Structures are given as C-alpha cells and as structure tokens.
Amino acid sequence: MSYEAVAAAVTKGLQGTNADSVKIDRSFPPAQLAAQPARLELKSPFSGSKLGALAEASGSRIQVPSCQDAPYIATGADKSMAGYGESTGYYVCLWPYQDGVSLDIFTSFSIQSGGIANIGTDLARSVVGDSSQFIQRSIDAVLENVRATGASVEKVSELKA
To answer: Which pTM value belongs to this model?
Structure first.
C-alpha cells in the first residue's frame, strides 16, 4: 500500500476520534527509503541541561515523544473532559521504508483527582469510569481506516504504564 494512501487514512481516522484538535505536519518522504522502519522515541526535552540534571536529581523524568525525520507527524488532544481534570494527547508518526510504511501511535492521559474540590468528580468516576476508556477506541478508528486501504496492520510492540 502506498505511503500517501496510509497517510490519508491516518488523517481520516484521527479526525473521527474524540480529539478536539488535530495538527498534521507533513513533509516530503526521503528520496532514498530506509531498509528498516524508524521508531518513535521518548526523549527528555531537557537532556544535557542543568534543568534536566536538577529534574532527574529530584526524581522527575519528563519525556516527550519524538519522531526524528518522520515525513508525517500528527498531534491531537481530547480536552472534552478538561473541566473534570482529564486530558488525552495523541502523537502519531508515519515513516515510509523499503518494505512498507511504519505507523507509531503514542497516547498520554492525565487525570486530576483527590482533594475536597474533586470529591464529586472522583465519586462519578468510580461509577462510570474516566475518559481513558476511549483511547483504545480512537486507536482502533485509525487502524480501521488504514486497513480499509488494503494495508495489513501488524502490532510490533505495546507499552502500557
């Protein structure tokens, strides 16, 4: 399947998710495709700095997704539940390579809980759950659109915190 068809399918899939905003950065694929697919990496934005050293010394590890040289990077955010202290972020990278197209999806979810101010919200979450339950549905929507192009989708790895 062509890189362009997969990129269009990913865009369509992301636009059908709960994301309030989707930003897509595209550039030209490299003229010479790599033999192996590239991968999304988590990197410290403060690596090598005094601020980074201070953060690590205090036990904090701030890492952000990075898709070095990816010709397609999409970011999205679902802030529909921000009023309840919940936020979901999406980061998607596509790399064409000699044997196909590599698709990496990274999601983040943050939730504010505890304290007197959140008692009602925490009680409601204990009954109906939080919006993190929609993350897999959003990923599945993207993958379903990719499959609809005729491309095969193979999960290579998954990391859950």
So the answer is: 0.77
